Each structure stands twice: as structure tokens, then as C-alpha cells.
Interleukin-17A/F1alpha (Quasipaa spinosa), 170 residues
Amino acid sequence: MLLLMELDYYSYFLLFYCLIMMTVIVNIYHYITYQLLVILSAVLLGVCGKPCPFSRERMFPQNVKLTLNTSKDQGYTMEEAVHLRSLSPWSYRMDEDHNRFPSVIPQAVCQHQWCLDAEGNVNNGMMSVPIQQEILVLRREIQDCHQNFFLEKQLVTVGCTCTTPTSQPA
């Protein structure tokens, strides 16, 4: 204490300032250490495979804003029940996948191996074959509570048509 009393005002100020700075530095060190521990524990919890909490953000949106240019005449209309009136009729099977958008895609399934004639009788001279189209879908992959989205090609059967049978070489 004797040493402190012999110091002038400026020296007291410098000593006090140094003590405050040392306290601040120690507190910052403890704060950074605490933050690093919090981050490390969060990372370890994610790596250890804890179940992800359910949230609505994980679901695909029910409504998507889509802008279509309707000013052009497309030149075609969709007739009702064409899949049943075709000479190669088909039905639809719903392909459902909750990690894909759209989550439900109708897939055509040919009803017969052979085509029908105008009266609805089987025509063994013509085969019923599927018409397939490749489309882009949005695929969701969930890993460690994080969602990744990517485009993926998918082959979709859109209808059936009649063809001549392929002949086997003799």
C-alpha cells in the first residue's frame, strides 16, 4: 500500500486502467471459451443422431406461386376420359413419395397387352405399349436435421398407344 500512495494521479490511472483491461481480457477469454463449448456441444449433438424436431418448414409448401404465360393460344384441349376411349386404354396409379415435389405423380398403366378395335374387341395385330416422358422433380434429402434439395429426372408413363408387334428373327 505504501507504494500505491507514493504514485501520482497519472500512475494511479494507468494502474487502474491496466487492471480493468486485464479483467476485460479474462472475461472475453471466458466468454469465447463458453461460446466455443456451446457450439461444440451443438455440433456433437447433431453428429450423435438425436431425432430432429418436427417443424412445418420441413414439409413442402402446399401452395407454390407459379406464373404462366396464358396470352398464347396453346392450340389443344384435353378431352374428358381419353384414357378410356383410346384403342390402347390405360388407367392411373398414383406414385407417392413425400421426399419429392410433386409428392404425388399419376402413372399410366396399360390395361391390355393388345390393342382394341373400334368395337372394343382385342386386336392381336397391334400391341399396347406405354408412352413415357422424362420430367424434373425436386428431391429432398434430410441428413443431421438439415434439408438438401436437388433436381432429379424421373421417367413417367403418361399414356399408352398402339404399335405393330416387334418380330423376332428366325
